């Protein structure tokens, strides 16, 4: 999926599937840019095929590799939807039967104790699955490289087309590790953006779309 990020006074950043890198020289603009990416009310615009998308609907903001990432919470809805997709008619019939049995027990408790309580008997598969606290299996992160690769693997497995945004990656990874990541991200066809604070244009992998913004807000493709 292709994304376009437009942030005044810069020309739009055209991003594609795979690894994208935006490096910014000005510290002030860098932090303003990151804040704008997370604010649906900011003037920064994210679009796809000229259709504006809410930032909260377009991106997965991961941030700095030193921060804790709760993938289970991030993909809670998707985990339930994935399980629901694979439930057969036979599975559904069994779940309905079990749900009815549970409702009868609860109804009995209410009636026997003359409680002023009513019970909803309508079966809802999504509500039932949510009650089981279904979540994705969280990978173990043993390094900065492993953390990004683990998150990318989850994104690919979930079929997630959001733009995953990482920051300060060059402070944690070597150039060789970023090269490996770029190739893996390309092969898994996910959308990833590294936003970096940099004083100069550094070397980037061939399998990337990259930009450098200097202190005069002049934008260079790398």
Instruction: Give the helices and strands as they follow along the chain.
Output: EEEHEEHEHHHHHEHEEE
Shape: elongated
- What's the total helix number? 8
Strand order of the largest sheet: 6-7-8-3-9-10
User: How much helix is in the residues?
Assistant: 25-40%
Distance between the termini: 21 Å
Number of strands: 10
What structural class do you assign from the helix and strand content?
alpha/beta
Strand count, sense and closure of the main sheet? Answer: 6 strands, mixed
Integer-rounded radius of gyration: 23 Å
Mean pLDDT score, rounded? 90
Strand content: 15-25%
- Low-confidence blocks of residues: none
Secondary structure elements and pairings:
Blueprint: E1 3-6, E2 13-15, E3 18-24, H1 27-37, E4 45-48, E5 51-53, H2 55-58, E6 59-64, H3 71-74, H4 76-85, H5 89-112, H6 125-131, H7 144-157, E7 163-167, H8 175-188, E8 191-197, E9 208-213, E10 219-221
